[in-house]
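so my prof wants the structure for this chain in the tokens format not the other one, which i didnt know existed until like an hour ago. anyway here's the sequence
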Amino acid sequence: MGKREAVGLHVVPRESAKRLGRPPDTDSADTRRMILRIARETFSVLGYEVATNREIASRSGVTPGALYHYFGSKMDLYLAVHEYTQDLVYSRFSEAIVGRHTFVDQFTAVLDVAHEMNRTDHSVARFLGAVRVDVRRHPEMRVSVEPRSRQRERFFADMVEVGVSTGEISPQRRAVVFAYILTVLVGLTDAVSDDIDEQGRAIVGIKDALRGLLG
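here's what i got, hopefully its the right format
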């Protein structure tokens, strides 16, 4: 087993990995999603600088030419993975809060979904943590990822407003609660996402702290 395979990257079995050129249209969407998933795994472990399109193509079972058919450069691929991952996360978060009409119910639902997503696919949280590092190293990325940061801020600002409307949050503490939310989510991603049990214990503590914050 190669060194990089040992750190948890998904490896496509040799017998099942088709060497694809320009894919037929019927397979195009599925192939693109498959590349994005494997690219996320690769970027999440190696980071932007070390990961290469050639390696991602190989692990995806496609030719480098097929990869460039979908994504014109490594930066294009990285940003597409970021968008794909943010869409996944915030669609799941939005589904989780449907029918929940208090701040505590909505935020605890988000925590539970974040934990379940991490249990299902470690690369989601690991990649989002890596993005924060990569953006500092490559400031040119910031312009492209910034709109998604604003999407995150709007989502949680709306959640805080739910708490204000229900009386759970004092209007004067909007900024405090908002900062708490962002700090909690970054901590869950960057500090404990590699240990699902530890993350579960952290979420129990966060829920306890949340009751104290609002109590």
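also thought this was worth mentioning. Residues 25-50 form the longest helix (26 residues).
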